[in-house]
Amino acid sequence: MTKLDFANPGSAVANSATTPSPSLWARTEVRFWLILVLVAVGSSVLRTWLMPHWEGLNLIGRVTLEAGLFLLVATAPVWFFLCVPVRREAQAARDSLERESATLHERLRTHDLNVRLTAALDMAEDEESILRIARQALTLATDGAPAQMLLADSPDTAMRFDLIEGWTNDEGRCYVDSPTDCPAVRRGMGTVFEDSLTLSACRGMRGPMASNCAAACTPITVAGAGVGVLRALGPSGDPSLYRLLQSLNTAAHHVGARLAVVRSISNSAREAATDPLTGAANRRSGEARLASLAQHTEKYVVAMLDIDFFKKINDGHGHEVGDRAIKLLVDVVRGCIRREDILCRYGGEEFLLILPGMDITSAAALLQRCRADLPSACSRAGLPVFTVSVGVADGPNNNPAQQIRAADAALYSAKQAGRDRVVCASETGAEVDVPQQATQ
What we know:
The chain is of the alpha+beta class. It has twelve helices and twelve strands. The N and C termini lie far apart (84 Å). The model is unreliable at 1-18 and 430-440 (pLDDT under 50).
């Protein structure tokens, strides 16, 4: 086996090209002696037969005839026993050298792809960056052949990302719905589907297909689970697809490994910022968001929400019903607020709601709708009907702690006034009750 030296890529090819094998020398030597014997015997026979006919010639004539005779006798053996075999062996050596050079080129390309992917993905901090690098990796790994990357969040979910490189139309694209539908993912290994029309063709290769289309597919694995696939197209019977599969394997391995790290970090960060019971943000996340808003000039409103007589719910119906009541409140509030609004569990049955870019009147009206939706939601969920009291404050926006205290004071006023209501705190500290009928 030829030893590869990556520090000197041409060394393997040069050594194999300049070092003849012992068998080649032996065959050449045998042919040489065989040609020599044949020429000597043939020359002797012809010279003996023609000798009586040229006795009358002078010396120059005899030398000329003998030279011509020698060339005539030597031409056929030299051609058939030396030139033809040498040409055949030279062609075989050239073909072997080209295959060796192509193999070396492929290994160097895979090595280069490996190094460049490792360096690029180490700097990727989120899935968007990984997908951008994966798109570039598809081009490098496939040498411009049509390539596709399908990716899902988990093995059982739908393919969420579909990256296409080198396609001019939809012919040959894969349409598997989820990773578990892909044979390569189920097998856990790269696969070459050599013909789109055979019985063993991949089910994902549907739609308009050329009869000579083949595909190389390899799974993307995250934490041991297949979540996607890398694939490239080529003509049926093309052995380069198997070399291409090695590059796809390299790209899929690195993309999957980095996705595992990024998703693990993202899940850990999400768990650290989320209340485990309700899925709402926790108190630390809410305070961090308020600190961020306080650094900008945009106005925002905060509200404190608290379930009325929550202890009676726990004591009378059990803690499981109390937990269900807390989760129901979160669901009702989420159904009323906007995407940019943040609901945080502040402590026990108390919640903090942050409403960026909203004035206090609109915020109070929104919270009245939430309060009004609770009774029917309780009935649908089979829970005892409960109510909430809410305190709302819109300033000072540059002092989140003081704003939370103002909303908390307004909440206390709502409790003192009989509960099941929304109370707004003005910037001067005065409190204004917002009638339900005025906001519905």
